[in-house]
From TrEMBL:
Domain of life (superkingdom): Eukaryota
InterPro entries: RmlC_Cupin_sf (IPR011051), Ureidogly_lyase (IPR007247), Ureidoglycolate_lyase_dom_sf (IPR024060)
Keywords (A to Z) from UniProt: Lyase, Purine metabolism
Keyword Iron part of the UniProt annotation: no
Gene3D superfamilies in UniProt: Ureidoglycolate hydrolase
Protein name as annotated: Ureidoglycolate hydrolase
One Pfam family in the UniProt entry: Ureidogly_lyase
Amino acid sequence: MSGISKENYLNPIIPSDVKVKDMRLVKATNELLKDIGYLITSPDDVTVENGKFDIVPWPTKGWRALDPNTGNEGGTTEGSMDIYWEEDRLYAKNHAITTDSNHYLLGYGNLPSNSNIIEPSDISSVFIWSSDYHPDGGQLFFPTDGKPFISTLAPAVGDDITPDHFTAFYISEGYGLYIYPGVWHNSVYIHPSHSPVSLFGRQGRVHGRISVDWVKEFNTLLRVPLSFEANK
């Protein structure tokens, strides 16, 4: 199956008969994030230098092994991750990535087939249409303002991913998130009243990205609540 192009990442096709799957939002703890990643209190918690940032060695094509301490020397790239709403659409721009494949439509505050105008203050959830994973390394998100955020995550189950694998996690104030290589994820979600925000991001420099288009493969949008209190 072909991947998602940079053009489609900004303008996906959403049919009028698309289904909606509601996701429950849970408060993230390291116990709940087991096999996915863990909470951090500073970007310095997870670096290549301290041995805690995972870089996957380059895959070999034959029976010979990589020479020791090679195949993982590309290290990480880092930069700001801008998250912002424009009307009823949530976008992200990842400045850690030096190509133009760094601008994404994360989701919708209203079903695209609904022609009714919705005010930003009335948006209570986001409808997400895609997710992805990075086979080459982990990824770190840390809010520069210390504010809470929401992240949708699934374990590294490989390519046979389904909506049922996913959980929406509420990351409490003062914390960031580190996820392991291969973990399915999106960027992060915020309520329009908090837009725009900037996060510090760090990830493997190769930036391999493998995606699922929930609409194309399952005719489904995932609806994620944007308030932890309202979700209780």
